[in-house]
Each structure stands twice: as C-alpha cells, then as structure tokens.
Amino acid sequence: MQAESLKIGFGVTGSHCTIPEIWDALERLVAEGAEVFPIISSSVRTTDTRFGKAAEIIDRLQAITGRFPWTSLVEVEPIGPRRLLDIMVVAPCTGTTLAKLAVGISDTPVTLACKAQLRNKRPVVLALATNDALGANFTNIALLSARKNLYFVPYRQDNPVDKEYSMIAKMELLPETIAAALQGNQLQPVLL
What we know:
alpha/beta, single chain, 7-stranded mixed sheet, globular, Rossmann fold
C-alpha cells in the first residue's frame, strides 16, 4: 500500500489486551508516509491494565505518529466540517464502540470521528476485538456490514473453545484493508 500523504484518523478503544497488536500496522502506515492522527477513548486514556499503562500507550502513540492523541469531542469535532481525514480507522474496535456506531451514538472522541467521516461519505475501517461478536454484537456487525463506507479488517474467532463468542481482527491486514476501503472495496475474505 502506498500511504504517502494519506491522512488517517486512528481511533484506539479499550480492548486493552489487543492494543499491542496495532503497533506494527501503525508503524508501517507512518513509514509508508501516512499522516496519522491518533484518537483515543476515555478507557484508553485513563485505564492501567496488566497489558499496559495508559501513559505508556499515549507515549507510544505520540512517538509513532508525532502527535499527542485527541481525547475530547472538541478536538475531533472539526474532522467533519474541515474534511480533515481521508480515512478513519478504529483498531481495536470494542463491542461497545461497535454497538454505538450501529445505532448512531457519537458520544466519544472515536465515535464522533467516525460519524464525521461517514457524514462526508468517506471510509471508516473497523478492526474488531470483542468477546461478544457472536453474541450480543452479532446483530451490530450485520448492521454495519450493510452500511456504505464502513469496512472491516478481516476477522476470526480467537479462541473458539474457551471464548466461543469472541472475535478479533487480523491486525496485520490493516494496511491492505485501508487500501481496499479507499477504493470502495471490502478486503476479502472478511471471515477468516
């Protein structure tokens, strides 16, 4: 994928165990010349977990992108009227974020950034990481799969024996999914 001069909003939501999987793809996008604008949920901004401290995640995002993450509705609001982004990515995309997008709730920096993109008829890429993808969020995945300008990073069950409802995106396919979405195509197969 040639990402030179591409403006990417990169939303990170609270699937804390999945956040370490985004670093390689994010570094690849920046190395290929993309201008990345990190946007984080309040959970990522404030929660320390066994998978990493909030301050470490923020520092790493800033080190990779050269920008301090946007953390408020006020910071992301100009995305829509100013058409700041070519594409919006949410990686990882939690079940909560997925559900909010499915019903049009834009009360977080990440969901408002997605709404801004969609209002401008520009692509949004979702990289699922949710323990209830084949449960409560199955309907939301179906709803979003049918919407224009929404694309999924191909995903799979991550542990069908112990977590039968859980699904996760294959994060290494994020750059290829972005390239396909910019052409108006869903990278296939979407179900791995």
